[in-house]
Design a protein that fits this description.
This protein has 116 residues and is mainly alpha-helical. The protein contains 2 helices and 2 strands. It has a two-stranded antiparallel ribbon with strand order 1-2. A hairpin with a 2-residue loop joins strand 1 and strand 2. Helix 1 packs antiparallel against helix 2. The chain is rod-shaped and about 85 Å long. The protein starts with a helix and ends in a 5-residue tail after the last helix.
Length: 116
């Protein structure tokens, strides 16, 4: 039961992390789309601490694209962790079912065969 609880907690953590990365991906894709709608004369600013610093549009676009690629990589890693956790939980359930079957067989053997 302890292993199952740990597996479930681990699984929930992986799901939560994936949801956070998914939200970040959506946000960054939205920003990238907004860059496409900018006029040539538009100015872009980057928040650095408490300051807004002017940034060239191509640099900002490049930064967002790199961030999107990073987030996609993290999503793949999360998916692998989730799959691994699901497989671990399945193995635990199978092992528990086997132990329960063995226990029931020993109980029946110790108490005699059930009468019909």
């Amino acid at each position: 039961a302890v292993v199952s609880t740990q597996s479930t907690g681990e699984y929930q953590k992986f799901i939560q992390t994936r949801q956070q990365f998914d939200a970040q991906l959506n946000e960054n894709e939205l920003v990238l789309g907004e860059f496409g709608r900018l006029k040539d004369s538009a100015e872009v600013f980057k928040l650095v601490g408490p300051l807004l610093v002017k940034q060239e549009i191509p640099v900002a676009v490049s930064t967002v694209k790199k961030r999107i690629n990073f987030i996609k990589g993290e999503l793949e890693r999360c998916d692998k962790n989730i799959t691994g956790s699901e497989e671990k939980q399945a193995r635990s359930r199978e092992a528990l079912a086997k132990i329960q079957q063995q226990y029931q067989a020993k109980m029946q053997a110790a108490g005699g065969a059930p009468q019909s």
